[in-house]
Task: inverse folding
């Protein structure tokens, strides 16, 4: 079941002619792709991917990489919750979930195992953006649909679903932090994510895109691995070595930033971070001017919904950029942007309304984040 790249092909062409034209065919218009309000092509992307339809129900798998991050755990819970809904469950014969850790070879082996077992589709968060070309070829040969999301691979041969990370971390988050600085100079602490991921690479590029315009702002970089405990330690160490910072930009695990600032008696300065409940609450409680910028764990269901659509013969843009919810401290409201009664680890933005993907905390918590 080879993917077809197309654009505006006449609907009456026979299937074999479609395959013959695939390499040079023009790209489908947005109105011809699946759920275009949700799956919007990234800027400059005109190619689409589609496969011949096959009959369901389908065997599908979710292959997560790095473990121990609350966002990833909630993403798995939400994927299971979505797949259990009656209108979805009728199309899914089996859903398997595996988290392999940060080792590239282990993740590739897990994907290969599902390919060899004859699974129809696999959605995965890549540990490394450039290591999957061979497994993508093996999936194509076996007729397995792959969807790469959140930390996408660099290959255009599979559907990739992700926020526009340079805009996310740069134009939205970092620019908001700089705008909140009373004087556009001083020391800014950048708390990066897990090394080797496309997301960390692109988010750092977004930070640099903005900060390179401000020559009087110097940057100290630390690696937080998207983990709250690690972030708290490296931020505490950075404060101990460098003294007061004038601003902080953090990718994820940003409760660690506010906790380290509180423990060190650091004065409130502009902070840009994630949408974990504890971080957002801390912005309010510690009177920190800042911004919460989110990518929802709903990416898991969005990716799996894309996989089902591809199996059913629908076309999707080869690279999809999801919206980026964000809110400034001054605009935050209880039970909307943060939830006093819920755990600090809860991701406050759990849905993608434009994709028809929404959840309540109770629905999410019925499911576990562990491997099958």
Result:
């Amino acid at each position: 079941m080879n993917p077809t790249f197309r654009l505006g092909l006449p609907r009456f062409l026979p299937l074999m002619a479609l395959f013959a034209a695939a390499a040079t065919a023009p790209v489908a218009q947005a109105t011809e792709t699946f759920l275009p309000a949700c799956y919007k092509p990234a800027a400059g992307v005109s190619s689409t991917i589609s496969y011949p339809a096959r009959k369901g129900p389908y065997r599908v798998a979710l292959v997560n990489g790095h473990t121990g991050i609350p966002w990833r755990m909630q993403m798995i819970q939400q994927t299971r919750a979505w797949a259990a809904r009656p209108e979805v469950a009728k199309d899914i014969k089996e859903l398997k979930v595996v988290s392999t850790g940060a080792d590239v070879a282990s993740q590739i082996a897990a994907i290969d195992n599902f390919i060899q077992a004859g699974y129809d589709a696999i959605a995965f968060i890549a540990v490394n953006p450039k290591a999957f070309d061979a497994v993508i070829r093996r999936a194509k040969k076996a007729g397995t649909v792959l969807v790469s999301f959140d930390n996408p691979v660099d290959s255009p041969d599979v559907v990739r679903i992700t926020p526009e990370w340079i805009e996310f971390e740069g134009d939205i988050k970092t620019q908001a932090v700089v705008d909140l600085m009373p004087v556009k100079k001083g020391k800014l602490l950048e708390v990066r994510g897990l090394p080797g991921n496309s997301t960390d690479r692109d988010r750092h590029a977004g930070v640099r895109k903005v900060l390179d315009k401000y020559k009087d702002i110097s940057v100290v970089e630390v690696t937080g691995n998207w983990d709250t405990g690690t972030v708290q330690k490296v931020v505490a160490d950075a404060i101990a070595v460098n003294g007061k910072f004038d601003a902080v930009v953090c990718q994820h695990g940003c409760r660690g930033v506010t906790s380290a600032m509180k423990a060190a008696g650091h004065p409130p300065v502009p902070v840009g971070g994630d949408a974990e409940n504890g971080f957002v609450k801390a912005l309010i409680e510690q009177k920190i001017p800042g911004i919460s910028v989110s990518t929802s764990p709903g990416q898991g269901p969005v990716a799996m919904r894309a996989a089902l659509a591809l199996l059913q013969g629908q076309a999707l843009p080869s690279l999809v950029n999801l919206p980026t919810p964000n809110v400034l401290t001054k605009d935050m409201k209880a039970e909307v942007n943060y939830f006093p009664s819920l755990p600090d680890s809860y991701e406050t933005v759990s849905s993608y309304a434009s994709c028809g993907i929404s959840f309540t905390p109770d629905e999410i918590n019925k499911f576990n984040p562990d491997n099958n």
Observations:
- The longest strand covers residues 92-99.
